[in-house]
Amino acid sequence: MDKLIAETKEYFINNIQQTEDKYGLLEHVPEVVKWVKKIREYYPKSDLEVVLFGAWLHDVSHYLVNDGEDHAVKSEEMSREFLSGKIDKDTIDRVCHCVRSHRCKDVAPETLEAKVLACADSASHMSGIIYMDMLSNGHRVATVDEKLERDYRDIFIFPEVKELLTPIYKLWKSMLLEYQKLNLPKGE
Question: How many CB atoms lie under 10 A from the CB of residue 137?
Answer without folding.
Answer: 11
